[in-house]
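Sample pair:
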Amino acid sequence: IFSIVVFGSIVNECYVNKDSHTPVLHCIFNENESACSYGIAVGIIAFFGCIFFFVVDLYFQQISSVKDRKRAVLLDLGFSGFLAFLWFVAFCFLANQWQRTTMSRGVSQGADAARAAITFSFFSIIVWVSSA
């Protein structure tokens, strides 16, 4: 759920026009396109990873080999640790870029979405560390 909030808030509200004269959209995080792209990428990876491991959990009882069960559990554990790291980087990167952002009319329109993306990136660290 947190990945959907981060991904959705960045895609929907974190691209704004710098002024009314140019139709070009800029990332709200200090006009750094990498910040928005990284947040979107981590959100998508987390979402599809959750779906994959949900399906693995559904079929876990049908896996008869102990080796295969062990691999599934270790893969889940490794993925959780990896995603906790990605969310930590996302939180630090987005918070740093938001701190450097100068407030303007366009930025203030998407400020709540930017704060939501940063907040839920932090919450995602806690969730993925606790699931590991």
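The two ends are 17 Å apart (CA to CA).
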